[in-house]
Amino acid sequence: MNASRSLRGYVLLLLAPAIPLYVAYDVHETAALAASESRAQLRTSRRQAAEIDRFRRQPKFAATAVLSDQELSALVRQAREAARIAETAIDLIDPQPLSVIGRSPYSRRPVAIDLRGLNLRQTAQMVDGLTHVDRGLWVSELRLSPVRQQSAADDTELWNVELVLTQLVFCPTNR
Question: What is the C-alpha to C-alpha distance for residues 93 and 126, in angstroms, rounded to an integer?
Answer without folding.
Answer: 14
